[in-house]
Specification:
- It is a single chain.
- With about 80 residues, this protein is an alpha+beta fold.
- The protein has one domain: Winged helix-like DNA-binding domain superfamily/Winged helix DNA-binding domain (Arc Repressor Mutant, subunit A, Orthogonal Bundle).
- The protein is about 50% helix and about 15% strand.
- It contains three helices and three strands, in the order αβααββ.
- A three-stranded antiparallel β-sheet has the order 1-3-2.
- Helix 1 packs across helix 3.
- The chain is globular and about 35 Å long.
Length: about 80
């Protein structure tokens, strides 16, 4: 992963959606398609940022059929 000094608006939208789920007491997992719809980004973009957040330890991943599910990690500060 390359380092960058800029943050994508898409990354902010995906993070904000995951954060909003915690703030509104909705601790449920969301699929990449739900992230895409709520963050108003393409499904491919939602999957890419969700995976990046998992790799960074910001989000948790549940690999369940038929789609992976994501949530903001409780250990992310």
């Amino acid at each position: 992963m390359t380092e960058t000094n800029e943050i994508s608006i898409h990354a902010v939208r995906v993070y904000a959606l995951l954060l909003d789920r915690v703030a509104t007491q909705e601790h449920g997992w969301v699929t990449a398609n739900e992230i895409a719809a709520g963050a108003e980004v393409a499904p491919r973009t939602a999957r890419a940022y969700a995976k990046r957040f998992v790799d960074l330890g910001i989000a948790d991943l549940a690999e369940v059929f038929p789609a992976h599910r994501y949530r903001l990690s409780e250990q992310a500060a």
